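Anyone have tokens for UDP-glucose 6-dehydrogenase? Sequence:
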Amino acid sequence: MRIVMIGSGYVGLVSGACLADFGHHITCVDKSEAKIDALERGEVPIFEPGLDAIIEHNRSAGRLDFSKDLAAPVADADVVFIAVGTPSRRGDGHADLSYVYAAAREIAAAVSGFTVVVTKSTVPVGTGDEIERIFREEFPGKDIAVVSNPEFLREGAAITDFKRPDRIVIGTEDPRATEVMREVYRPLYLNEAPLYFCERRTSELIKYAANAFLAMKITFINEIADLCEQIGADVQKVAKGIGMDKRIGDKFLHAGPGYGGSCFPKDTLALVKTAQDYDSPMRLIETTVAINDNRKRAMGRKVIAACAGSVRGKKIAVLGLTFKPNTDDMRDAPSITIIQALLDGGAAVHVYDPEGMQAAKEMLGPVTYGNDPYEIAEGADAIVLVTEWDEFRALDFKRLKSTMKNPVVVDLRNIYPVAEITRHGFSHFAVGKKT
Ligand code: UGA
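Reply: yep, here.
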């Protein structure tokens, strides 16, 4: 099958590389010359474990190539995926679809013969209908089916998520498109991944509903964590206790500093706006968004409280900046708000992150970047763990204690056993437990 991926960002690159790995021929297209040039030199512009090896392997096997030009590869394609960005529109929180519609018009101008155009970008309900209208009215005579196929990849685990998905959602009622999509995902189907066919609008909503539900689940456990701190219960044990009920499930119940990233904040906001537009408000999600925003600021106050109520003139060492481990993505990361609160409080903030420091430099205020946890902890009044990178799990607390000014650990991801930290003489503050 000849497949073209429009947009070589996170979703486009991962999906393109994985589909090539399954034996399809893929061309990844992007308007950014710099990005395509880099990819052609063998440089992968994003950090995703395992992705560079898959790209390299499939390029040398001749199944994966890159192009700045859309028209030529699209003319030969059976399937064209739209995987361009849908950022939050400035001012109103709606998803900005201008890139999607521009891509759709360029694709329609270029196709020859029956072609399936698939939205993989997260697009609001009705976008597929609008693309179909553009095709019908502006490009009559072109034989194109429009399908929705949302992506459920997690950054940092994207390759496994793509190759071993819980489900593949495909929104189409067109029998020819159904056959083509079965063929695209046949290798995954053989892995027993269920293909779930439904109407296009339903499929578009499934993506938003899934992300909103997960964001709500995290927010629920974060509020339980606050309550645990007040009443002297342990949120990790509450999460385990409720998660053993299969109706609830044990995933996405880790209390922490609030969700961030390029998806949950944007998608929850877009769903709220859509629901308001259709006069069917989603109060649970509106509240989820508000609670999560407040939480990031509250975490800044929590650190200040752990430092005896003031960080003025104190040195604070922040471990982890990205919105979660195994990514270099800083978008909507809780670290940004927490660090701002510490700077506002008069602290000298020293930070370290294994992959995120490049991106952080454009987002954080005047902080000092260090080379490892021990360097930034020297003379510090507190260590604050914000992102749970593996390399922070086995820190040498004896060594840290000997170099810090005040032995205080604020663990916003609950990765350190209380007993171990206090045994080394640290004051220990966690999330959702009295320590
Ligand atoms: C999320 C979804 O999990 C994917 O299924 C979806 O495809 C993706 O958005 C998207 O729409 O593209 P992602 O944003 O990469 O994936 O990361 P997650 O692992 O979901 O984490 C999101 C945030 O929630 C992070 O800040 C993480 O630290 C936080 N989180 C997650 C918690 O605080 N607690 C948890 O139990 C789980």
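Residues 26 and 158 are 18 Å apart (CA to CA).
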